[in-house]
Amino acid sequence: MVKLTIDGQELEFTEGTSLFDACREARGEALPHFCYHPDLPIAGVCRLCQVEIEGMPKLTIACNTTVRDGMVVFTRNERVRKAAQQTLEMHLINHPVDCPICDQAGECGLQNQYMEYGLYESEVEKGDKVTKAKAQVIGPHVILDTERCVLCTRCVRFCDHVTGTGELGIFNRGDRAEVGIAPGKELNNNYSLNTVDICPVGALTSRDFRFKKRVWLLKSTQTICPGCATGCNIRVDHEADRIFRIKPRLNADVNGRWMCDFGRLEYRRVHAESRLDAPLLADGDRQREASWDQVWSRLDALGGKGLFVVSPWQTLEEMDLFKGLGGGNTVVSGPSESGRGDGDEILLSTDRTPNRKSLAWLGIDELAGDELAARARAADGVVVVYGGDPVGEVPAFAEAVAGKTLVYLGTHRNATSDAAQVVVPTSAWAERDGIFVNAKGRLQLIRRVVARPGEAREDWRFLADWQGRTDDQTQPAGLPELRRGVAERVAALNGQDLNTIGASGSAVAEADTGGDA
Amino acid sequence: MRTNGKQHGYGAEMNFRERLYVGEVFRGLWITIKHLVRNIFYMKDMPTVQYPEVKPQYSDRFRGRHRLMQRDDGSPRCVACMMCSTACPADCIHITAAEHPDPTIEKFPEKFDIDLLRCVYCGLCEEACPCDAIRMDTGIYEIVADSRDKFFVNKEFLLNDETNGTL
Lengths: 517, 167
Ligand code: SF4
Ligand code: SF4
Ligand code: SF4
Ligand code: SF4
Ligand code: FES
What we know:
The complex is a heterodimer of chains A (517) and B (167). With 517 residues, chain A is an alpha/beta fold. Chain A has helices at 19-27, 78-92, 109-117, 154-162, 193-198, 261-264, 292-300, 316-326, 356-362, 369-378, 390-393, 395-401, 415-419, 459-471, 479-489, and strands at 2-6, 9-13, 50-53, 60-61, 72-74, 136-137, 142-144, 168-171, 178-181, 204-206, 219-224, 233-239, 242-248, 280-283, 286-289, 307-310, 330-333, 365-366, 382-386, 405-410, 422-425, 434-437, 443-446. In chain A, α2 (78-92) packs across α3, α8 (316-326) packs parallel to α14 and α10 (369-378) packs parallel to α12. The two termini of chain A are 39 Å apart. By secondary structure, chain B is of the alpha+beta class. Helix content of chain B is 24%, strand content 13%. Chain B has helices spanning 16-19, 22-41, 83-87, 124-128, 155-160, and strands at residues 67-68, 93-99, 107-115, 134-135, 152-153. Chain B has a three-stranded antiparallel sheet with strand order 2-3-5. Chain B has a two-stranded antiparallel sheet with strand order 1-4. The mean pLDDT of chain B is 89. Chains A and B meet through loops of A and β2 of B. The complex binds iron/sulfur cluster (4 copies) and FE2/S2 (inorganic) cluster.
């Protein structure tokens, strides 16, 4: 432990702590900065974080200094303030200040820090600025405006040290220095949109989000990414029932501060054209919109021993209810080939479904396509498919269900919904509450962010209503009650209370079984 | 309110004279007659304007109906920054931003609608605009239309309109 004094406050830190972090703790807020980032190596290039250390003739940058015993540090005196102010002014010499057309406005490091450290009476003539290339498309998701860049090298360090792909670099010198893409390359790694997050200014912006919304109009909801079995913690930014973007949320145990581009753009499925928004009943060889009464009378009339198929995109609670609803029927999941993709070593899993783990916990077998088709062929009259698209993915399954009563509970129109006699519109991931269990067995909460389209139902309520009609038992009145029931039925949970899971999820409940990610 | 040490208005106790009404009615009429006589003899001092034949003169700073300023080529000067719609207390400016074909402009309003029925003519939009793209200096205060949706004016109208108020 080392003892030092920051702004007259005596504090103790472990050896090796960066002075930047120590000052953050002492001040209750970070020092002004652009280049420092807790998950990237130190660059020390922006010079904004200068502090005065007793005994040193010049000011020193805090981010590249480690705490030493007996240090006396000043972060708020006039000399330090002036330094930050002058440095910021230097950063602005060639800055275009296009805030009105800059997507970063409202969450910009330059704007925000200028509020406190601005000179306000600028000494730079507008006409004297060095101009550089604007709005260059440098990858499938990212757009670069070099004029706005403050040369903090965060994006460069990200591509060098996090993804190891090294697409970006700083070229030229002096006021001609600019960030750019290495010749013949494209910023197309799986994590390119994280550079947009860490860019403190509007130099790197998202092509998907470009000009869609001003950031101060957005509201944020914390939830979990449905893209793969890693279950990155995210924040969904939305306004008036429309999602505009997704940002990663810090969870050191799951995703740190990053998330992949695939997951980040998954929100688009929520607002897809093909969303089911009304119940449908087959009428001859067409489907027509029906009332809920008609749907219920159709569902009540189902009989025989059927096959119940649930997809790994449903939540733990929904799977449990569906399994209960299946009762004496065969309840399986499948085809096990669906929801697979290329993974990488960083976050993205080869298992592109958010909740496969729960299937194992609930004892629901996952079947390969041909086996699933065989079960469907053996089924007596009824096949209920909940999520996924087995008809579209497994031709043999499509043949097997032909002539049987196919009931589809799902969010999007697809081959399965087209083949179904009864279609019940359910909620997409961002429209319901529930629990996803990631590949490592971590329980994480998904949250309702936006309203459901049209007549789409909240999944668990629909399942509970259906269950109530088949066995006359009282159904859980709310999610907390349902979760208590789930905790009793799932042995792997070890009696864990599902109602106390916090925003960062609950640590591994069972012994870590590795998972398949 | 004039009090005379007496309570006036709703719930005040009336004295006997007031409760007879007739006297009070004539007291009210007397005020009317006073004005009538004065207006007959000093007609020039009357504040009434013979609207609509004669239009009142307002100050140059009067906030009339909005207009959108044009660039030299007639396209809107607005860059769709949403400052005005953010500042608007009536929430009546609806802008859809889009990518401009000219890369030196980048952003422009694909749609720019103002709901004039909701507008409270506070001028905050004009105040907030960093590009001097929206102004309320048209002096137009007669904003009339024969249906509600006509008060929902669009970009083309705000850029070019010379109807002087009739929508
Ligand atoms: S980077 Fe920040 S200061 Fe620069 S134009 Fe964008 S919002 Fe304005
Ligand atoms: S583009 Fe952004 S992150 Fe990269 S060096 Fe410039 S300011 Fe820093
Ligand atoms: S004048 Fe006021 S109410 Fe009307 S559009 Fe402008 S900001 Fe909104
Ligand atoms: S404030 Fe001005 S530039 Fe910005 S959107 Fe409104 S009219 Fe356009
Ligand atoms: S944050 Fe220390 S030099 Fe940039």
